[in-house]
């Protein structure tokens, strides 16, 4: 490279400078020399080499002590290049007749350190011009230039908005430059996440280059322009018993730390942090809620509806009624929205609401009236009615001859609640029958059954007793030899009376036959006795032969 038409050597600070002697070695060369020129033009010799003795001598120049090396071809090398080495050096070749000279210009370059943004502002405020920081790049040669960037774009100076001052300081001992560029900046709200950086442009041996600093983001403070109130948790519905948190926020930076909350029914605002908590809210908490800054500027509002659900069951709890009584039941609902009502009896959902005009045993059970607000999660109410239907024991007895003709089944059909205890006895003897079998007790009804094979007519008694009353009913049962009419277990009272009448008729006929046989036997015995007496008194009774014949005929008829 040439500088002003002269040969130039570009060197890097700290490296070795190599300067060839660009003269052709002439014949008769005696020696070669290197010198540099002072600013005033006076020469300073620094190296000498004889062509005959092949010896090298270095002049006593403090700046170049132990730094010089002169080769056989008269190339001069200078170690550890310094800024002070930027001079005009001259190679001299001397003969007896002539002195030849060739100058070389030395240029030294030093890359600056990576720039840093120092003295950074803790935060920036909008609408205020303030010092953002200093971009510092050290140890550069020659001096460089500093440019500021925001989000990758050059920041151009704008009066009262962007003010840049560049200061360059040179180190007298090294000759290196330190560049310091200070930036004053008036930020806007949009600069909250802006990235600021600076770039140093410098020259090296191969031309112009740049080094960029690490980007910096500043906390930008700006006033609140809008206040917002929220209800937490952010549920679409609120019900009685919930906890509500009102949160007020401002869009400033830093955000406001205190607010005024306005609650329905309160005339003055309540000063609080950014949250206001309400525990176990009731329906009277429904209304409009507001919050504002403490200076009562910038207000926001929201409406809260607290949903509720009331259920009134009449009667409720445990209720005891007598069979056949009426029981009006009502389930009344009061709610903030339309509610769904349904009934459950003994864990089974009912199709209609219960209504009791005449209570039966099967009406007893556990009733639940339940209601829900489908749009409000978790809002449901239920109340229970435990209905007990009591009744005195009622008894119906049936009998029938079993198909094998060897036994008879007697059944005592019992109704009542609490469940009656059943006992069988034989009328007359008073003996207790313990071999009865009972059916399952369902809806206040069950049956007690015995199987017997009586050799003679008997009367059985069924006794049913609970806490309300003791009921006794008896039934005549014929001997096994006399079949009983089959009677369905669900017969009515009229049929029962008819069966009893038939049994009485059969018993009467049997008793009548037995009496007739007894009378016939007595008559026959009297006849025989009279016949023996007549043989002894034949003559006496001859006149009575016709009477005896008639009597014999009558006796025969009676016997028959």
TrEMBL record:
<dbReference type="Pfam" id="PF13927">
    <property type="entry name" value="Ig_3"/>
</dbReference>
<feature type="transmembrane region" description="Helical">
    <location>
        <begin position="505"/>
        <end position="527"/>
    </location>
</feature>
<dbReference type="GO" id="GO:0030425">
    <property type="term" value="C:dendrite"/>
</dbReference>
<keyword id="KW-0393">Immunoglobulin domain</keyword>
<feature type="domain" description="Ig-like">
    <location>
        <begin position="103"/>
        <end position="212"/>
    </location>
</feature>
<keyword id="KW-0812">Transmembrane</keyword>
<dbReference type="InterPro" id="IPR036179">
    <property type="entry name" value="Ig-like_dom_sf"/>
</dbReference>
<keyword id="KW-1064">Adaptive immunity</keyword>
<keyword id="KW-0130">Cell adhesion</keyword>
<dbReference type="Pfam" id="PF13895">
    <property type="entry name" value="Ig_2"/>
</dbReference>
<dbReference type="GO" id="GO:0007155">
    <property type="term" value="P:cell adhesion"/>
</dbReference>
<dbReference type="InterPro" id="IPR003599">
    <property type="entry name" value="Ig_sub"/>
</dbReference>
<dbReference type="GO" id="GO:0002250">
    <property type="term" value="P:adaptive immune response"/>
</dbReference>
<dbReference type="InterPro" id="IPR013106">
    <property type="entry name" value="Ig_V-set"/>
</dbReference>
<dbReference type="GO" id="GO:0005886">
    <property type="term" value="C:plasma membrane"/>
</dbReference>
<dbReference type="GO" id="GO:0030424">
    <property type="term" value="C:axon"/>
</dbReference>
<dbReference type="InterPro" id="IPR013162">
    <property type="entry name" value="CD80_C2-set"/>
</dbReference>
<keyword id="KW-1133">Transmembrane helix</keyword>
<keyword id="KW-1003">Cell membrane</keyword>
<keyword id="KW-0966">Cell projection</keyword>
<dbReference type="Pfam" id="PF08205">
    <property type="entry name" value="C2-set_2"/>
</dbReference>
<feature type="domain" description="Ig-like">
    <location>
        <begin position="223"/>
        <end position="305"/>
    </location>
</feature>
<keyword id="KW-0677">Repeat</keyword>
<keyword id="KW-0391">Immunity</keyword>
<protein>
    <recommendedName>
        <fullName>CD166 antigen</fullName>
    </recommendedName>
</protein>
<feature type="domain" description="Ig-like">
    <location>
        <begin position="393"/>
        <end position="473"/>
    </location>
</feature>
<dbReference type="InterPro" id="IPR051116">
    <property type="entry name" value="Surface_Rcpt/Adhesion_Mol"/>
</dbReference>
<keyword id="KW-0472">Membrane</keyword>
<feature type="domain" description="Ig-like">
    <location>
        <begin position="324"/>
        <end position="386"/>
    </location>
</feature>
<dbReference type="InterPro" id="IPR013783">
    <property type="entry name" value="Ig-like_fold"/>
</dbReference>
<dbReference type="InterPro" id="IPR007110">
    <property type="entry name" value="Ig-like_dom"/>
</dbReference>
<keyword id="KW-1015">Disulfide bond</keyword>
<keyword id="KW-0325">Glycoprotein</keyword>
